[in-house]
Automatic annotation (TrEMBL), chain A:
Its main location: membrane. This is Protein-export membrane protein SecF. GO terms for biological process: intracellular protein transmembrane transport; protein targeting; protein transport by the Sec complex. It is a multi-pass membrane protein. Gene3D superfamilies: Multidrug efflux transporter AcrB transmembrane domain. Pfam families: Sec_GG, SecD_SecF_C. Part of the Sec protein translocase complex. Interacts with the SecYEG preprotein conducting channel. SecDF uses the proton motive force (PMF) to complete protein translocation after the ATP-dependent function of SecA. It comes from Vasconcelosia minhoensis LEGE 07310. Keywords: Cell inner membrane, Cell membrane, Membrane, Protein transport, Translocation, Transmembrane, Transmembrane helix, Transport. The gene is secF. GO terms for molecular function: protein-transporting ATPase activity. GO terms for cellular component: plasma membrane. It comes from the Bacteria.
Length: 322, 489
């Protein structure tokens, strides 16, 4: 069986286009709601998250799940009515409160009020996250900067190892993957309340690394095939290269997705969305390298060759790969 | 059986020579693996606070009217003040580091009362000069001796893991300190009036050091008053930072008339260069009107952390098993060999973390699990290429060889791009992000090493044994009787 990517490139481009447009639509909606393309979490806007669990070593303390209406009353009395609440754990005896930026005094007051209402908390199972608004801004800026620096570094490396147009098209495929991931998580933010934290930025950066990986493997093959048969039609060369690397592309995505799936299954609460973001990004990355990066390169090279003489089709980087 | 006819075609001398070399490499890899196991057993893995439980606080040093810009010197002084306060908490293995221009990172593992810590660490330092109350000379000497003994005890205890004893001793120190503070009278002279403190040698060629202090005009008058009262009495001037006695110099009888006037003074005694500098930094920290605010608090309870470790271990183990099974089912013999290489990879990477002192955090473990995926990728690239070459009609040996050779440029390019992303994350990211970047980067580097040495040596060694030299074990669907090898490279 041979996959003819070039023949149906219009289809692949339309699929990606639709996906990205939906994502951008969702990001616009998010922007109106949160002033950000994706629902920002504690790490970026600042605030306090307090997670407490009932202490089950105290008799009669863990009789039933925590009652959220009771919690709401406590929060109202502390003027924290706008906080968001979440019950965690199978027996719903862990409470997570996300409020604005609280100082130590306010926080311990809240904790005591909750404890008086709900029962003793386990001091060894408390989790506190407080991020000041200024620090949040700082985390966001440094994340964005890391993304841009990674982009630049990868472009330079690829234009040295390959050629500038390879590097730029790999970048296009990369942006595609990032947009698809951002779009899907923007939708998740609007629907199930997903919040982006600094781990999400980490996930995006990892997607950058892996997505380029996939594209590079195919481009590497195109380069190799071109140096052997420089006179062949670019479209055929690309088709061959994609098919020759197809098993690898699928298997690698499959194995990494397997390990990530195990994080989704067994990993802690905070890592689940992280792994999910990576799964989405890697699948988008495999898709874009097979269907988008390759067809774009074929389209670009044949377009560039056509107006000039056939001699213009210089074999890219004739040096043998090491 | 097809391998008879096949073995006749092999370039035997060449293969035997290659096998000898592979044996050497295998022996080296084996030695390395054993070393890795020893490292893992001997050097414990450092767990981050999110895994072992504890508080991590980021303190923002704020500028004030008097100090609009924070210099490195200021930050060092504030850091010393914070270290003093952290020591007062009695948490073993606590860490205070400066981050960037104006932030301090405080790590308090296993802390039981995060509220107390947060209250204690924030705020401006309180430096006070107090005169000793009359008639307390004997008591002072006695309490100082007791405090010294308790502190020596504390240093000993911190080496052990007896948290209860440490806390008890810490409480004892705290009560002794307040008893000590009781022996001194509060005064108006505070850090606000201290202009500077400088450590310097007593003479040009002296090993003796002293600390020169300088007050502003208002402070100079107060200081003259204070020193006049105690000069020649045998009582001393107590210098307190956050209610802890730093130094208690006496004042010579010659100043009994006027006190020390002019706003300058020197504290001398048995100072070495080191202790003098330490006092200088503490005095300056106390003099700086720089409020410190807690801008980030990440506290994880001890059981929650243990829970995360357990879950991550399950995730890592399960992910690894899935990958091992997939490789065996899909790639047959080479898959099994790659699995072996993968186990070696996991051990080497773990040892590298321990050896380099990498602190494992939750995202760090995610980075490790992910790097397992990347390690597999290198093998997948190689095996796919080998199959292709086999289908093109090459001999087994040549196919494996060119599989490695041709896949290498892809492996290199793809790993370098990942390393570039890691470098960006490590360089620009903070805390958790850096941990992830570091573990992933180490993983990627080790995986390149194991793919090109370990997998390779294992494969060549195995095809050196006739019973394994069947192309069908490498590429299902390929006829066992190989077509005559063509002469292409």
């Amino acid at each position: 069986m041979k996959l003819k990517v070039i023949q149906q490139r219009g289809l692949w481009w339309v699929i990606s286009g639709i996906l990205i447009l939906i994502g951008i639509g969702s990001m616009v909606l998010s922007w109106q709601q949160f002033q950000a393309p994706i629902r920002p979490g504690l790490d970026f806007v600042g605030g306090t998250r307090l997670q407490v669990s009932l202490d089950c070593s105290v008799p009669d303390n863990c009789d039933g799940p925590i009652d959220l209406t009771e919690v709401r009353q406590v929060l109202e009395s502390q003027n924290l009515g706008s906080s968001s609440l979440q019950l965690l754990g199978d027996d719903r005896q862990t409470l997570s409160v996300r409020a604005g930026d609280l100082d130590v005094g306010q926080r311990s007051q809240l904790q005591q009020a909750l404890e008086a209402q709900l029962g003793q908390f386990d001091p060894a199972a408390i989790q506190i996250d407080t991020v000041g608004p200024v620090l949040g801004q700082q985390l966001f800026t440094s994340g964005l900067l890391a993304l841009i620096v990674a982009f630049a570094g990868i472009t330079v490396y690829l234009s040295v190892r390959f050629q500038l147009d390879y590097a730029l098209l790999a970048l296009v495929a990369l942006l595609h993957d990032l947009l698809v991931t951002l779009g899907i998580f923007s939708i998740l933010g609007l629907t199930v309340g997903f919040e982006a934290n600094s781990l999400f930025i980490v996930a995006l950066l990892t997607i950058v690394g892996f997505s380029v990986n996939d594209t590079v493997v195919i481009y590497d093959r195109i380069r190799e095939n071109l140096s052997r048969t420089p006179d062949r039609e670019m479209n055929d060369v690309v088709d061959d290269a994609v098919n020759q690397t197809l098993a690898r592309s699928i298997n690698t995505t499959l194995t990494t997705t397997l390990t990530l799936a195990s994080i989704v299954l067994f990993g802690g609460e905070s890592l689940k969305f992280f792994a999910l973001a990576l799964i989405v990004g890697f699948i988008a990355g495999a898709y874009s390298s097979i269907f988008i990066a390759s067809t774009l390169l074929a389209w670009w090279r044949s377009r560039a060759d056509r107006p000039g003489s056939p001699a213009a089709s210089d074999p890219p980087d004739s040096s043998e790969p090491v | 059986m097809g391998f008879d006819a096949y073995s006749r075609n092999r370039p035997s001398n060449f293969l035997w020579a290659a096998m000898g070399k592979q044996r050497l490499i295998l022996a080296a890899v084996l030695a390395l693996t054993i070393a890795a196991v020893v490292v893992i057993v001997q050097i414990p893995t450092q767990l981050g606070l999110d895994l072992r439980g504890g508080s991590q606080l980021t303190l923002q040093v704020q500028t004030s009217e008097q100090v609009p810009q924070i210099s490195d010197r200021d930050l060092a002084a504030v850091q010393r003040v914070i270290e003093n306060r952290v020591n007062g908490l009695g948490v073993s293995e606590s860490v205070v580091q400066s981050v960037g221009q104006d932030q301090l990172l405080v790590q308090l593992p296993g802390i039981s009362d995060p509220e107390q810590a947060e209250r204690l660490l924030g705020g401006t330092a309180q430096l006070e000069f107090r005169s000793q109350r009359p008639g307390t000379e004997v008591a002072l000497a006695e309490i100082k001796r007791r405090l010294q003994a308790l502190q020596a005890q504390q240093t000993l205890l911190e080496g052990s893991d007896d948290q209860a004893a440490i806390a008890a001793n810490q409480a004892e120190i705290a009560s002794t300190r307040s008893a000590l503070a009781e022996l001194f009278e509060p005064s108006q002279l505070t850090g606000d009036d201290l202009r500077d403190a400088i450590a310097q040698p007593v003479g040009a060629a002296s090993n003796q050091w002293m600390v020169v202090i300088e007050f502003n005009d208002e402070g100079a008058d107060l200081f003259a008053d204070l020193t006049r009262n105690i000069a020649g009495t045998g009582r001393s001037l107590g210098i307190f930072l956050d209610n802890v006695l730093l130094s208690d110099p006496g004042v010579d009888v010659e100043y009994a008339e006027t006190g020390i006037v002019g706003g300058g003074a020197q504290i001398s005694g048995n100072f070495t260069a080191e202790t003098a500098r330490d006092l200088e930094i503490q005095l300056r920290g106390g003099a700086l009107p720089l409020p410190v605010e807690v801008v980030e608090n990440r506290t994880v309870g001890a059981t929650l952390g243990r829970d995360s470790v357990q879950r991550s271990l399950y995730a890592a183990a399960f992910g690894l098993v899935l990958v091992l099974v997939f490789m065996t089912v899909y790639y047959r013999l080479p898959g099994v060999l790659a699995d072996l290489a993968l186990l070696v990879y996991a051990l080497l990477t773990w040892a590298a973390y321990n050896l380099l002192g990498v602190t494992l955090t939750l995202p760090g473990i995610a980075g490790f699990i992910l790097s397992i995926g990347m390690a597999v990728d290198a093998n997948v690239l190689i095996f796919e290429r080998t199959r292709e070459e086999l289908r093109a009609g090459k001999t087994l040996y040549r196919a494996v060889e060119s599989g490695f050779y041709r896949a290498f440029s892809s492996i290199l390019d793809s790993n370098v791009t990942t390393l570039i992303a890691c470098a960006a994350l490590f360089w620009l990211g903070a805390g958790l992000v850096r941990g992830f970047a570091l573990t992933l980067a180490i993983g990627v580097i080790v995986s390149m090493f194991t793919a090109v040495t370990c997998s390779r040596a294992l494969l060549f060694f195995t095809i050196g044994m006739p019973q394994f030299r069947r192309p069908a074990l490498f590429c299902p669907g390929l006829s066992t009787v190989n077509p005559q090898p063509t002469s292409q490279s």
